[in-house]
Amino acid sequence: MTDAPVTSAPADAASDIPRNPPQRSLTLHRALARVWANDRGLWGQITAVSHTTLGLRFMATALVFFAIGGILSMLIRAQLATPQGAFLDTELYNQIFTMHGSIMMFLFAIPMLEGLGIWLLPKMLGTRDMAFPRLTALGYWCYLFGGLIMLSALLFGVAPRDGWFMYTPLSDATHSPGINADVWLLGVTFVEISAIAAAVEITVTILRQRAPGMKLTAMPLFGWYMLGTSVMMLVGFPPLIAGSVLLEIERAFDWPFFDPARGGDPLLWQHLFWLFGHPEVYIIFLPAAGVMSMMIPILSRTTILGYGAIVAAVLGLVFLSFGLWVHHMFTVGIPHMALAFFSAASVLVAVPTAVQVFAWIGTMWKGRPQLVLPMYHILGFFLTFVMGGLTGVMLAIVPFNWQAHDTAFVTAHLHYVLIGGFVFPMMAAATYWMPLITGKRRIDGLGEAAFWVILIGFHGTFFIMHLTGLLGMPRRIDVYPDNPEWIWLNLTSSIFGFVLTIGFAMFALDLILQATLGKRAARDPWEAPTLDWAMPVPAPNYNFASLPLPEQAACGAAQAALTLARGEGVLPGAPRGRREVLVSTVSGARPLHVAVLPGNTALPLALSASIGGFVLLMLAGLYALAGAALVPVAVLIWVWARGMAPSGDMAQVQAAPGLRLPVHFRAGVTLGQSGLVAFLVANGTLFASLLFGLAFLEVVTPGPAAPSASVEHLTMGWAMGFVVATAGLGVLAARASGSGAALAGLLVNLLALAGVLWIGAQLDDPTRHARDALRAVVAGYVGLHLLVAAGMAGFVLDQLRRGEITPDTPGAAPAWRLWQEFTAVTTLITALVILVQAGVV
Amino acid sequence: MKRFAAYPLLVAGCSGPLSTLEPGGPAAADIAWLWWGMLAGAAVITVFMVGLVLLALGAPRPVREGRWTLGLGLGLSMVILTPVLAAGLWVGERIIPRDDGVVTVEAHAWQWNWRFTHADAEGAPVESENTLHIPAGQPVDVLITSEDVIHSFWVPRLAGKLDAIPGRTNRARIMADEPGRYAGLCAEFCGQGHARMRFDVVAHADWPPVLNGDGTEAK
Predict the structure, then answer these.
(1) Has residue A420 been placed in a domain?
(2) For an engineered disulfide with A727, which of A128, A230, A824, B56 has Cβ 3.0 to 4.6 Å away?
(3) Looking at this predicted complex, what is its ipTM?
(4) From the CA of B214, how many Å to the nearest CA of chain A?
């Protein structure tokens, strides 16, 4: 047979794809289950890469952290129940409230939404797994290890204690000696590897793996919400990562980024933190709003009202959420007219939120809402979230914020928003999807009781806390001996806080009982039209025996489940004994090629463990050893990339009658390349955050000006010109083909790296002034990228030597080209910025 | 106590030495009015929204999409939010410091105390720890600085808070209508001693006050 690559599928539109002939469902199921199953036993848990396994594991782990964070909150409430609480000493109290906030944000909310997206998206979009299964597993292990490091610190009494937003100088080496702050900076950054990984693969999965013919403009709203979320994560997390890296470098090596005595600025930390921190609120809210947009119409027996308006609202939220971080900084002394802009943006963000809320209520008017348990939690959401949104508008009003900021009023507001806007929807979602997770039916009664206890406990705790704040009680105090007027308020909050905890325990018990004692659930218990129910319960690892065509998806989950199980959809079964998914065009979901996904492997565990070794050595202050620990990390990344080399059966795949598709080794833009683009978006934002820091220190910071550079501008200019030119030559090499070009690419990148190292040696002592320190970091950023570019050129050279790269199979060459171009551009920008700053240009 | 008397709504539950709802000066009073107005609006909106949700629990009704998404979602929310934003900006402009040569005092924070400085009759600086002396009945600007970490200067009955940030000087305007003692505190978490980082503002009818060596007022 001929193996010529086909660049476009024969069918012009997915609706033209004919059905496959029906087969025996059981035969298909057995073949697929064998190929997609986890390995047996404990080893199988270590090597699992399945999105179903890992999505559930993310969510289950997040629930454990939620319970731990909840216990910490009970300790806080016990301490505050009386004005002279002697229950905790101040040091321990500070650790506990810092850990409560950090756990709930970084170890509960974000992993929970990642797990939800990872578990649900492939099912809802009609594919068999996420785009990068090994990356899913890597993210999980980084989350688990980072979380365990932070928890161990709590057990050993060295947990972070500077508040969950870690303001400097309180968190710097002078004012926070010991490893407490390092635990936060390194631990959270370690955990955030999972956020970036999840954001990359969620973006790519939504854009390129939807069922054939599922247009972007017609995908389930949850897809739009998660797309908005993942884009926000790609752009929102890098400022936090940049800030954490800078602060850790300041603590470890005394580089004064945030030290006002040496030209640094504590406000730079606040800007970087809230550039992440405010989008973060919407990163948490959007997935919750996404499941609401799915459940409300289904449980109201109707269709969603205002699909287009909701999509517009999501896009509006994504855009606006990056323009209002300063409302966390209204009291730092920014001029009132500047605050007015951020106040207006903060008020304006209520509008797209209102559009969604009214669309949901309108949907309920249109249909006949059924008072089933998920609907209870949806009603709890409406009540709680509306009130949280209204106090949010109040806090966006500058003068009121000046009074309420940093008081219990804000504590009340953020719990209304996060529990109302995230926890209630998640409880609705849990009760809604439990049959698909466990294959079991709920036991009536306990869940309803849990809902009422939670609702009463929540509002009893937090409603009066608004008043506590207006009566002047600041956040984060452990005693208030001089304020008897706060006693009854705090005692009431504490008592209801325990009620709330009992409610959550009942909710957890209900889930456990359902999973263990529940009767077998029927398929599609809610009579849903969406693909997530078009499969057996509990969901099999492969989701679909064949991938749904538009006409199959349109006839309801129950009907679709039958034809899909019989293999009448696209790409039925696993006849080639490997994990195959369909990759399609972004907007119209026209099938392009078949991606062969990796199978079970322990590599993600090994890689995250080696990163964990680096983190632990950094925590121990063994910086030289930590540097050496990066060697195994690099080796494992090489091994990881080797796993993507073209191999196996390269023949075209018959996906449907008349639809022959190439495998991804021979295809145009692969999932991997799309993923690299998404990663470079995050990487570019990281770079932009560093440049923002340089500009901020130059323009805004009032501290002492940087001493003039001791090296001649001219020499430095030539050196930078050399680095830019060699990085540019690297682009030419990456665009050419053949071993000679790859070898040249390797050499010019190494030359450029040598140039950067020479410049680094000439740069002024980075401990002298914040600008010098930040410059050295930017130079390090460029150097790291050149090093990676050299590695990629070497990798391509190796692939050429092995004969893996042919005219038909590009191997890693496109990835190298993309990276080299990114590196050349950032190198050029860095050189220009430094020359402009030095007054040369 | 004239501003206090202006709140018929005020019940005993809203008063206290640190209560923003028992204002002792114009800035705090403006913000308190802003709060009561927003609270009333928020209460009406909450009832309206809960009512809409409860009404939805009945039989299906014909709905027009534009009425919900554009009418209520976009239209109603803009109609409500615009005046709230305008009121906030108007109040903000009224209460911020301006260049009008008012009495200026200094507040310097460190872990975990305050050192305040005002000028005596000869213009010489007078320092006091944890007690800030100001004239009553006239606006006063406070120049706020910090020695070590970020603190925040807050006298809830007089005005909103403003941070004390190392490397920066921030200017806050406060005013006490009546002579008396007003409680203040550090509002930004600043470490071990944060909860006890309190101070007092004493507003004097006669300015500058005659103080004893220990900073107390000479009678």
Answers:
(1) yes
(2) A824
(3) 0.95
(4) 23
